[in-house]
Amino acid sequence: MARVVVDVMPKPEILDPQGKAVLGALPRLGFSGVTDVRQGKRFELEIDGEITDEVLAEIDKVAESLLSNPVIENYEVHVEDRSVAEIAAEAGR
């Protein structure tokens, strides 16, 4: 089983009030040096079988038509590497 991740972010020219709220709160919480915050969405899709170019093309269609609003958001689709813990769990360690 593989995991495909779709990250969705507001386009740079779109205002991001949630990101601005986080940016304003950081100094009050003692964090400094952060100059900008953009807030987005992350979708993790568990896929049975092999991740082929055809599967990724289908997921791209899903990302464009359902998971994002292409007018105001950009998205990126990528296959997530499995963690060491996941590999060890599969091996029964």
From TrEMBL:
- How does this chain assemble? Part of the FGAM synthase complex composed of 1 PurL, 1 PurQ and 2 PurS subunits.
Q: Which reaction does it catalyse?
A: N(2)-formyl-N(1)-(5-phospho-beta-D-ribosyl)glycinamide + L-glutamine + ATP + H2O = 2-formamido-N(1)-(5-O-phospho-beta-D-ribosyl)acetamidine + L-glutamate + ADP + phosphate + H(+)
Pathway annotation from the record: Purine metabolism; IMP biosynthesis via de novo pathway; 5-amino-1-(5-phospho-D-ribosyl)imidazole from N(2)-formyl-N(1)-(5-phospho-D-ribosyl)glycinamide: step 1/2
Q: What is this protein called?
A: Phosphoribosylformylglycinamidine synthase subunit PurS
**Top EC class per UniProt?**
ligase
Which SUPFAM superfamilies does the record cross-reference, listed alphabetically?
A: PurS-like
Q: Which InterPro entries match?
A: PurS, PurS-like_sf
Q: Which keywords has UniProt assigned to this entry?
A: ATP-binding, Cytoplasm, Ligase, Nucleotide-binding, Purine biosynthesis
What domain of life does the UniProt record list for this protein's source? Bacteria
Species per Swiss-Prot/TrEMBL record: Nocardioides zeicaulis
Q: Which gene encodes it?
A: purS
**Its biological purpose:** Part of the phosphoribosylformylglycinamidine synthase complex involved in the purines biosynthetic pathway. Catalyzes the ATP-dependent conversion of formylglycinamide ribonucleotide (FGAR) and glutamine to yield formylglycinamidine ribonucleotide (FGAM) and glutamate. The FGAM synthase complex is composed of three subunits. PurQ produces an ammonia molecule by converting glutamine to glutamate. PurL transfers the ammonia molecule to FGAR to form FGAM in an ATP-dependent manner.
